[in-house]
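Hey L., structure's done. Input below.
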Amino acid sequence: MDSFDPNHGSVSENAANDLTPTPKAHPTRPSRDEALAAVRTLLAWAGDDPTREGLIDTPKRVVDAYNEWFQGYTADPRKELSRTFEDVQGYNDMVMLRDIDVESHCEHHMAPFLGKAYVAYVPTDKVVGISKIARVVEIYAKRLQTQETLTKQITEALQDSLNPQGIAILIDAEHQCMTTRGVHHKHVSTITTSFTGVFETNLALQERFIRLSQSR
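Output:
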């Protein structure tokens, strides 16, 4: 990951305030057959023949892939955080997970963006299983997203469930909508951050989190 200035790159207050509630599955979700027909239409629109041998099963594969890529719409991230442990025995330092895989799709072009998430919190009186934090990142990522919204949603889920002394999130990702279309700039990463509580007020702690995010 490239070096990062803690004074830049944070999710802005306006971005945070403009966030819409967590999206829910559409109440009139189209049927699988309708989804298959839509893929066939797109194949024909692209200029190919959806009935030729190489494409005959493509609609099925695409719909199955969408079920996997967007499974976050049918999962509740806060449920993953519902079981906590209060026996922290006075632990008063950060709990940090590094290099959590982020596999998401931008809501503007439905193109993938891929990267890593770094998540830390300082507990108040309870902790959660570390695998649950990775699962929360995965659930929110498996939706159509912007990286800014994804960063804030993870923060809010941890805040609501754990009420910690502070939270730090950093996501570093490359967006395929930028590398494979439009400006065609490869190897450009986007960094978003969110700091609350002690990570916002204690710059030494914030810098330590960033340093640990960069170290290998």
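The first helix runs from residue 13 to 17. The longest strand covers residues 95-106.

-- N.
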